[in-house]
């Protein structure tokens, strides 16, 4: 007969099991989060005009490939925190970019590629975004007003594209923004009144403020 221990030892074992289960589910949680983020980023890669881009070879859903070691991807706790695809010869649009599925993304650097089409309004879903660089592409149409939802944004570089229309009023409400580059587009109209007077010209002329 096996005697089941009662009293303190079983209490201890109960707690041990609880701790182990917690660790297990945390691990499982972050593993499934990264599997989902890998799947949506892979889908975006498949949507670009040159998914065979050699720099993106590591972007694979094979078992031996892990999201956090993909080219240009940096993670915190298994979730994508930084995406740096600057100067990577990417020809494509942002229409399939998983803006709603990368909740921990803080830095996007996709400058100096062949990005075209418009900037989707879903960009406003990246609520933790601090840094957004889409300069040096062929992005067209207007800057979406949803950019004003990126409350943590410090730097916004959209210079050297084909953006048109007026600068959305909402940009003036981004209180941490101190580095705005909009030069070399087809933007027109006045600087929105929402920009505070001290920062106006500096912003317009694309100079960093502090
Ligand atoms: C980018 O892809 C489009 C569509 O496939 C193609 O027409 C265009 O020439 C490409 N641009 C460059 C610079 O390769
Ligand atoms: C993963 O496996 C595939 C197919 O077996 C192989 O071609 C690729 O080089 C491997 N990648 C890594 C990062 O080991
Ligand atoms: C990573 O996850 C652990 C456990 O959930 C948490 O305590 C820690 O603050 C997280 N680290 C960051 C940088 O978010
Ligand atoms: C992205 O990588 C380039 C080249 O390594 C580097 O110059 C740039 O500062 C990086 N951008 C960010 C936001 O880390
Ligand atoms: C911006 O450009 C697009 C096409 O490139 C055009 O349809 C649209 O009318 C332009 N918008 C403004 C405000 O000029
Ligand atoms: C999940 C989420 O925040 N979705 C939003 C993404 O952005 C679009 C366009 O702004 C909204 O309509 C969604 O509600």
From TrEMBL:
Q: Which InterPro entries match?
A: DNA_repair-toleration (IPR053211), Leu-rich_rpt (IPR001611), LRR_dom_sf (IPR032675), LRR_N_plant-typ (IPR013210)
Sorted alphabetically, which Gene3D superfamilies does this protein's record hold? Answer: Ribonuclease Inhibitor
> Keywords on this record?
Leucine-rich repeat, Membrane, Repeat, Signal
The Leucine-rich repeat-containing N-terminal plant-type domain is annotated at 35-75
Q: Where is the signal peptide?
A: 1-33
**What is one GO cellular-component annotation here?**
membrane
Localization per Swiss-Prot or TrEMBL: Membrane
Query: Which Pfam families does the record cross-reference, listed alphabetically?
Result: LRR_1, LRRNT_2
Q: Which PANTHER family does the entry link to? A: DNA DAMAGE-REPAIR/TOLERATION PROTEIN DRT100, NON-SPECIFIC SERINE_THREONINE PROTEIN KINASE
- Protein name as catalogued: Leucine-rich repeat-containing N-terminal plant-type domain-containing protein
Could you tell me which species this protein originates from?
Cinchona calisaya
């Amino acid at each position: 007969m096996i005697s089941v221990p009662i009293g303190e030892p079983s209490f201890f074992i109960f707690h041990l099991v609880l701790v182990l289960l917690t660790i297990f589910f945390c691990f499982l949680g972050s593993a499934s989060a990264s599997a989902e983020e890998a799947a949506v980023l892979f889908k975006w890669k498949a949507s670009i005009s040159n998914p065979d881009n050699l720099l993106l070879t590591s972007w694979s859903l094979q078992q031996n490939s892990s999201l956090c070691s993909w080219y240009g991807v940096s993670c915190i706790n298994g979730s994508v925190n930084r995406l740096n695809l600057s100067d990577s010869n990417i020809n494509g649009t942002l229409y399939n970019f998983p803006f709603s599925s990368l909740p921990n993304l803080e830095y996007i650097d996709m400058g100096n590629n062949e990005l075209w089409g418009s900037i989707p309004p879903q960009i406003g879903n990246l609520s933790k975004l601090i840094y957004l660089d889409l300069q040096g592409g062929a992005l067209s149409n207007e800057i979406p007003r949803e950019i004003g939802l990126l409350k943590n944004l410090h730097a916004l570089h959209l210079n050297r594209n084909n953006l048109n229309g007026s600068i959305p009023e909402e940009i003036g409400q981004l209180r941490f923004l101190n580095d705005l580059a909009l030069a070399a587009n087809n933007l027109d109209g006045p600087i929105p009144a929402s920009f505070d007077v001290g920062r106006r010209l500096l912003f317009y002329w694309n100079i960093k403020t502090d």
